Amino acid sequence: MDVIDLRSDVKTLPSEGMLRAMCTAPLGDEQEREDPTVCELEERLQSLLGLERALFVPSATMANQIALLTQIRPGDEVLAHEHSHIFRYEAGGPAALAGAVLTGLAGSDGQFDGAAIRRVASVSESEHRPRTRLVSIENTHNTSGGRAWSLAGLDDVHDTCDELGLLVHLDGSRLFNAAVALDVPVARLSSRADSVAICFSKGLGAPAGAALVGTAEALADARRIRQRLGGSLRQAGMLAAAACYGLEHNIAQLAQDHAAALELATRLFEAGVAVDPIRTETNFVLLDLAELPFSREEILPMLAAAGVLWSKGHAPSVIRAVTHLDVSSGMIREAAERTSRVLGECARG
Ligand SMILES: *Cc1c(COP(=O)(O)O)cnc(C)c1O
């Protein structure tokens, strides 16, 4: 029995075409800006996202951290959703590296509105308050189940930040998923941000690599900071080639990933499992085990024994499946079948 691994879209392996692109890419010393493939990737990203500069980095976590390091001073306040990656899953980087005071905002589906920013932002001249400097949004939002920001919600945050003089960072690790889900050009979601983190090793299928894209101002010091963090690579074109290949060949594939997630959610819903197909907007399916007489820690190994791997969701009773380009529709049907069988047995006790 083949195990179906739905733990994350970071599990994708480079395809044959991607490997060929990596092996034949022209290379040079990226620290000296001599790698033509990295230059090509950075130029493509600038025009794709409607921004002025781009910088290739090893990971989206590093892109997020560089965005803070270049745009805030120690003691400045950063606002982000309370369940955002930059806040919860980057090992305290914003505090440890940039010296940020991080304030979490509440809101459903990983979103918050301009009013929430206004309630907490301190843009007065008071010396007693940390200076609110930057708002970070995450699109799609990971822990809420890959939810895409509504265009109206996004515009509201940008309008508010413009009015208050706040910078906007976009953690767009899965920004292309959001663009595909909303059927808009990706620049519609990115061009108003000061800085954007993009990850190539998720749905785009590259083995590693990310980018920080943004205004000339936001990225003015970014190369120096990347060097300081040890993120400047030499013949990085091998990885940039994988990213270019992903941008060319795998963005269209995201719509299939979303359809596969919706099919999994729908099949499970029809089998009486506690998933909500309405909330499956992109490539995540969240399944709540709260009604079952077993814990998540007990159920995950049962699912694994039945040949389907789910991972832990953010909430304690939730498990998560993520579709990606290595998951076929046959695997989805089989995964739905194995999952509903195991959960049915659990429900019967
Ligand atoms: C995966 C992820 C990151 C970090 O990406 P890496 O490239 O693994 O460092 C950042 N933000 C969000 C929302 C993510 O899902």
Structure description:
With 349 residues, the protein is of the alpha/beta class. Helices cover 41% and strands 15% of the residues. The chain contains 14 helices and twelve strands. It has helices spanning 16-24, 36-49, 60-71, 85-88, 93-96, 114-120, 151-164, 175-182, 187-190, 222-228, 237-249, 253-270, 296-305, 329-348, and strands at residues 4-5, 53-57, 77-81, 101-105, 132-138, 167-172, 195-199, 210-214, 284-288, 308-309, 311-312, 318-322. The strands form three sheets. It has a seven-stranded mixed sheet, with helices on both faces. A three-stranded antiparallel sheet has the order 9-12-11. Strands 1-10 form a two-stranded parallel ribbon. A hairpin with a 5-residue loop joins strand 11 (311-312) and strand 12. Helix 1 (16-24) packs across helix 11 (237-249) and helix 6 (114-120) runs parallel beside helix 7 (151-164). The chain starts with a strand and ends with a helix. The mean pLDDT is 96. The chain binds pyridoxal-5'-phosphate. Pyridoxal-5'-phosphate binds at residues 59-61, 85, 138, 142, 171, 173, 199, 201, 210.
Please give the structural blueprint:
Blueprint (H helix, E strand, L loop, with lengths): L3 E2 L10 H9 L11 H14 L3 E5 L2 H12 L5 E5 L3 H4 L4 H4 L4 E5 L8 H7 L11 E7 L12 H14 L2 E6 L2 H8 L4 H4 L4 E5 L10 E5 L7 H7 L8 H13 L3 H18 L13 E5 L7 H10 L2 E2 L1 E2 L5 E5 L6 H20 L1
Parallel strand pairs: 1-10, 3-4, 3-5, 5-6, 6-7
Antiparallel strand pairs: 2-8, 7-8, 9-12, 11-12
Bound molecules: pyridoxal-5'-phosphate.
Pyridoxal-5'-phosphate binds next to helix 3.
